[in-house]
UniProtKB/TrEMBL annotation:
Residues 142-322 form the Phosphodiester glycosidase domain. Pfam families: NAGPA. Keywords: Glycosidase, Hydrolase, Membrane, Transmembrane, Transmembrane helix. This is Exopolysaccharide biosynthesis protein. The chain crosses the membrane at residues 12-33. The keyword DNA repair does not apply. One of its GO terms (molecular function) is hydrolase activity, acting on glycosyl bonds. InterPro entries: NAGPA.
C-alpha cells in the first residue's frame, strides 16, 4: 500500500461479505460430500430428523440419508454414558434426585422420582387449538419438575403444539383422541399402582388396564421387561432426546439429552438413549418426542440447554412431578 493511501471500507466490507456468503454456500458441499465421514454422519443425523429436513434432502437422496444415519455405530463412538454427578441437587428428603450424564458425544440430565404416583400428565389449556411451553405446563399444574411428553401434529412441520397424537389421558380420563376406535400403537401410561405400562391400546381398553396418565409417543421402545430392544442405532438419527423409564422398585426415570450444539452436545441415537436407561437399571423405557421439544424443568427453571434459538417450543403434553 502506498503511503497515505486510504482504505476503502466499502471494498473491505464487500470482500468480507463475499467470503462469508461463499463459505456459507460451500459449507453444505464440504459437509455432505467431503471426506470428513464423522462430520457427515453427525450433521445428517441431526438435521434429517429436525424441523428442517429439507436442508439434507436438497443434497442427498432418501437412500443416502438412510445409509448415513445408520453408520453412527460403525464410527466406533462409545455409546455408554457416564454419570458425572450423583449429588442430591433437589434437596434432602425431596424424593427427587437430579444427575448429570455425559457420553462421548452428548450431555444431559436425569431426574429420578422415587414415588411413581407423583408423576402425572399435564395438558395444555388450549387443547385442540395451541400448545404451551413446558415452564407454563409445570407451573399451572403446581408441579416441581417436568419434561416434554407425547408426540403431536399441527399445521406445518413444527406444528403449534395443540394437537396431541393418538390418545391422551389425565387423572383417569381420556382428554384427547384423534384415532377414534383404533389402537394407539405407541402408548406409554401409568396405572393406578404407579406402574409404567407400554402397550398398544384403544380408548375402550384404557379402563381395563387402570390407566391414570398416558400419552402416545414417537418411539422407539428402548427397554421392555428388562431387556434392550433397540437394534442398530435405533433408526432415529442423532439429536436432542427425551425419554421416560422405570426401575423394578418403581422409580421413574426422566432423561433429557441436549443436541445439535457441536461445542456442547451433538445429541444421542436411540441406542445411546437406551444404554442410559440400562445403566439406571430400567425395566421399561421409551423414547418420547425429541428435537426442539426436548426440555427439562425444575422449580420453574429450564435446567438443560435448549437447542432452538427461539427458546421453548409449544407442546401439548408434559410428564410432571407433583409435590410430595
Amino acid at each position: 500500500m502506498k503511503p497515505g493511501k486510504k482504505i476503502s471500507w466499502k471494498k473491505l466490507m464487500g470482500f468480507v461479505g463475499f467470503n462469508i456468503v461463499f463459505a456459507a454456500l460451500l459449507a453444505p458441499f464440504i459437509v455432505f460430500y467431503g471426506p470428513f465421514q464423522a462430520l457427515k454422519v453427525m450433521a445428517v443425523g441431526s438435521i434429517a430428523l429436525s424441523r428442517h429436513p429439507q436442508v439434507v434432502r436438497a443434497f442427498l437422496s432418501p437412500a443416502e440419508i438412510s445409509k448415513i444415519t445408520h453408520e453412527y455405530d460403525a464410527l466406533g463412538v462409545n455409546t455408554q454414558a457416564k454419570i458425572v454427578s450423583k449429588q442430591m441437587t433437589a434437596g434432602s428428603g425431596s424424593g427427587i434426585q437430579i444427575q448429570n450424564i455425559q457420553g462421548q458425544s452428548f450431555r444431559g440430565k436425569v431426574i429420578l422420582i422415587k414415588d411413581p404416583k407423583r408423576v402425572k400428565v399435564a395438558v395444555t389449556n388450549r387443547l385442540g387449538t395451541a400448545g404451551e411451553v413446558l415452564t407454563h405446563l409445570v407451573q399451572q399444574s403446581g408441579a416441581v419438575a417436568g419434561i416434554n411428553a407425547g408426540g403431536f401434529n399441527g399445521p406445518g412441520w413444527g406444528g403449534n403444539g395443540g394437537f396431541p397424537e393418538g390418545l391422551t389421558v389425565h387423572a383417569g380420563k381420556l382428554v384427547y383422541n384423534d384415532i377414534g376406535n383404533k389402537k394407539a400403537q405407541d402408548l406409554i401410561g401409568i396405572n393406578d399402582q404407579g406402574k409404567l405400562v407400554i402397550a398398544p391400546m384403544s380408548a375402550d381398553e384404557l379402563a381395563a388396564h387402570h390407566i391414570q396418565e398416558a400419552v402416545t409417543f414417537y418411539g422407539p421402545v428402548l427397554v421392555a421387561n428388562g431387556k434392550p430392544v433397540v437394534a442398530g442405532d435405533g433408526g432415529i438419527g442423532i439429536g436432542p432426546r427425551t425419554g421416560i423409564g422405570q426401575t423394578a422398585d418403581g422409580t421413574i426415570i426422566f432423561v433429557v439429552i441436549d443436541g445439535r450444539q457441536p461445542t456442547w452436545s451433538w445429541g444421542a441415537t436411540g441406542r445411546q438413549l437406551m444404554n442410559v436407561f440400562l445403566q439406571y437399571h430400567a425395566v421399561n423405557a421409551v423414547n418420547l418426542d425429541g428435537g426442539s421439544s426436548s426440555e427439562m424443568v425444575y422449580q420453574g427453571k429450564i435446567i438443560n440447554r435448549l437447542w432452538d434459538i427461539f427458546g421453548e417450543r409449544y407442546i401439548p403434553t408434559a410428564f410432571v412431578v407433583m409435590p410430595k
